[in-house]
Write a structure and sequence with these properties.
The structure holds 2 protein chains of 2 kinds. By secondary structure, chain A is an all-alpha fold. In chain A, 71% of the residues lie in helices and 2% in strands. By secondary structure, chain B is an alpha/beta fold. Chain B has a 6-stranded mixed sheet with strand order 6-7-8-3-9-10, with helices on both faces. The chains are: A mainly alpha, B alpha/beta.
Amino acid sequence: MTLGEIKKSLLAAAWFMFLTFPVMVIKVNTIQKTVEWHWERLLYVAVGGFVFSFLWRYFLRRKQGGRRSAAPVETDEPEAVPAFQRLIHDRRFSMPALVVLGLFVLVFPYLFSMYQVNIMTTALIYVVTGLGLNVVVGVAGLLHLGYAAFYAVGAYTYALLNLHFGVSFWLALPIGAALGSVFAVILGFPVLRLRGDYLAIVTLGFGEIIRLVLENWNDFSYGPSGIANIPRPKFLWFDFSLEQSAVFIYFLMLAMVLLTVFVTNRLKDSRIGRAWIALREDEVACQAMGIDIARTKLSAFVMGSAWAGMAGVVFAAKTTFINPASFTLWESIVILCIVVLGGMGSILGVILGALVLILLPEYLRAFSEYRMLIFGVVLVVMMVFRPGGILSEVRRTYQFKEGLSKDGSLS
Amino acid sequence: MQPILEIRNLCMDFGGLRAIDTLDLHIGQGEIVALIGPNGAGKTTVFNCLTGIYKPTGGEMLARSPKSQEARRLNGLKPNQVTENGLARTFQNIRLFGSMTVLENIMIGRHCRTSAGIGGAIVRNRATREEEKRIVQDSYDVLKKIGLARYVNEYAKNLPYGAQRRLEIARAMATDPFLLLLDEPAAGMNPQETDELNELIIGIREEEGITIFLIEHDMKLVMSLSDRIYVVDYGKKIAEGRPEEIKRNPAVIKAYLGEEVDA
């Protein structure tokens, strides 16, 4: 601990004190119309900032030190696989872990309160949308900022079809997915020639168009007041109570997550999936190698958006009320955060990302007004120390051995 | 025999700049033809026009597959359609898929010769599995031919420079071309790597019967390798002929060395 470091940390502490001064120290009591000054909190911030800055530098140094020592070592392995990654791909460990996890999610609704089941269902909805967006952003590398629009398409599909034609939830599910895909094609055609930032702006505009249409076309979507009394899903002839219904939707979402994981995993590891990855790597080379990039981009959009459509239908059925306020840009950003924070392209990472991003703010309610502050700090720390996401993608690559045609084991 | 590639009166304008000016060129089956010229002469632009990256503003480009003998106009085709028609290219600045393995890079090359779709990928039926197996096997065969088999499971970005250049050629070969367009394949190579490249290119011509059209600055390689050479300067063809003729051609010497000015 040198003098210079102490000086640096003192500076950081002073900076923290300055930054948090308005939130931490001044408290306006609106009832008595007085201003309370919590000076003692400034001390906590100073001490916290001082310690935090030391920890920060320590971890940053460790991270860089690790990288430096790893660089000159040339191994035959394509890339060093982190210990945790090795662990999840080791069957002796992953099999029992999967069984325990499976049992836990099965008994979850009977162990915990309705509130817990409900937020978990919401988290699962985000898992499905996150996995869908992962195909577009993580695998095919197309930055998409209007994803909530497809979610809205799904939700309004169910709400409107049910309102006008009495279409049941189960029929609305595939229709929602199909309409999500149709809208993906509609969006896809104009953006096929764009990439990167330009694509992001156009998709952003598209998302806003859908939301504004829903907000202003009163005759069609009932405007900002939304649609209420959307029926919850029924299963055969059972009539669920409110509680049973919540449990049922929980299991339904669980099944949908499994389906999404299965399908996206298989897509990634296929001829189409390889084309998506090649598209992400280098568009010009990809096209020069005979891949029709228009079709490949479109297929990524369609395969990604269908999930949002389906998740939208479940969302409408779960909340029984929808209005355009649920499908703002913020929603798209949250889903994008899930993908980036979880680890672009990594299925397990995206699942973890969704659970962290959706459940964390809920459980942080205990900290009331500091909830979003803590949440923001967690995001910043995550991205500084793990820029690849919680679980950065370690792609399954083809391990070729002469005589053996294909072995899809981990590299 | 009819040429497999014919370029007539090709023009390419960028605004007011004429990058290619009424270029005529033809390549016969089994030839190794080089396109040379000073920097900025428009060589890569010719490749970009041929492979559909640029749309030429004038002229005609015809490709005739040696198998079907059927002439196909290349004007207006997209890059992937050109590749499907049997013309494959490499890039001057290496454009590999860095975070894919060497084998996967080649597998991308097989994409346009295979057909499994989204449905097949999800249900993974017998036809899809068979096709995947075939893609892997074919890709490995290509790697063996090019001499990259020992790198099969490496990430492309981790390969040594010379091997990356060869991988570009291997990836182009995987698309089953009849004409291979190589854009400065020897750029940045040391003399030994260049010699190996020389052998490789001759091998591709002899064993696979693939015709080769290359842009190159390494004159030693060009002279020893090519059957015929085209020289362009300021987008215009200034000479064509066998290597010995080109070496002696005064217009070529002038373009490369400049003209003596009488004071």
